[in-house]
Amino acid sequence: MLNVIWLGFFVAAMLAGLAQWLIGGHPQVFTAMVDSLFEMAKLSVDVMILLFGTLALWLGFLRIAERAGLVEKLARFLGPLFARLMPEVPRGHPAIGLITLNFAANMLGMDNAATPIGLRAMRELQTLNPSADTASNAQILFLVLHSSSLVLLPVTIFMYRVQQGAHDPTLVFLPILLATCASASAGLLSVAFVQKLKLWNPVVLAYLGGFAVLFAAFVSVLAWMTPAALAAFSSLLGNLAMLGIIVLFLIAGACKKVPLYECFVDGAKQGFDVAKDILPYLVAMLCAIGVLRASGALDFALGGIRWLAESAHLDTRFVDALPTALVKPFSGSAARAMLIETMQTKGVDSFPALAAATVQGSTETTFYVIAVYYGAVGIRRIRHTLGCALIADVAGIVTSIGVCYWFFG
Asked: Which has the closest alpha carbon to 150: 364, 327, 369?
């Protein structure tokens, strides 16, 4: 899929360039397209310089959290819930522990740890699967919830905003939190409807009801705030959350007698390796999108959507955030490149850039996750996985745009 998307960007750009030359009489479009290639390649390196430091810093602290046992404690907390949402998985089966570890790692922004744990969980679920090539109910629920991407601290989004010169990188903290909660809730409810899960189980109600009450109370407090107050509160809460989690990691590590400095350095080394591996993908996608933008193809497509929005008497500022939303289900690197490109062209604190950042943090790369996780265990018939995952994606995208209008006017 990613090969098709990448090729499609260049083919669409070339066709649009030819149209600009032959129909519009603008032969200089090809100069702009070539210049964009080199500009985006340079931008990729600029982004990576900060990414090296950010990943090294964050993964260093996360390694301390792992050694302190915080991830395992969160897994034990979530274990009873997943045991009831997946009734076909026996109590005490290794899959339950791995699934909760996967979600705990995702919530803390530990993508590098979440993926191998998630693949192990999928293999354990496959041992219980009566049909080797068809996804089981438990596998579908796990994958849909994983692809809905419930992340409590979107550090990478903050990092991209820092790199582009944002005056307050954590401004999108609350919008992302609200959007990712909507995405995860929609994914769970859609799977529960199809699989007829008993959400009224007392344990499930205790977890979900408790979350719903806290979430409703939180939103009711936000509803009384003006847009300016919401933006300020999001900034304050985002900064406090990040610093509070770091201090929590350090205190927990100290209490467990973890060698904090050595552990941090060990995790930071891993962050350097992770960042290094991302650079080729970032260059590939940023260059392709830069050429697409310079050719006029992207502006033409967005112009059509903007015309439809205007015809429906809607505010059209959200249109410039749609490129990130449209490619996110297919490719994380393409969505990341779209986000950076939107920040570059519209301004890092513009409404389209804020909405694109919120979209980026609200959902996962659905098609990629399905391909990798099911491919690892030989699943070919995915049943209702894609439909439920796309419902979660749409919920995340729509909520992202709506919340941004609420917060940023």
From this structure: 364
Split at pLDDT 50, 70, 90, the class of 113 is: low
Whole-number pLDDT of residue 238: 66
Smallest CA-to-CA distance from 373 within 135, 184, 96 is with 135
Q: Which residues pair with 381 in a beta bridge?
A: 134
Q: Please name every residue paired with 134 in a beta bridge, in sequence order, or none if there are none.
A: 381
Residue type (1 letter), 329: P
Scored b (16 or more CB within 10 A) or e, 248-284 reads ebbebbeeeebebeebbeebbebbeebbeebeebbbb
Distance CA 71, CA 69 (A): 6
- Say how far apart CA 105 and CA 352 lie, in whole Å: 30
CB atoms within 10 A of CB 78: 18
Both structure tokens of 319 = 């249109």
Q: What are the tokens at 401?
A: 């745009």
pTM for the whole structure:
0.71
Per-residue CA distances from 193 to 83, 124, 187, 189 (Å)? 18, 25, 10, 6
User: 3-state class of 260 per DSSP?
Assistant: helix
Q: Which of 88-92, 137-141, 314-318, 335-339 is least confident? A: 88-92
Radius of gyration of the chain (CA): 22
Q: How many CA atoms lie within 13 A of 92 on its CB side?
A: 0
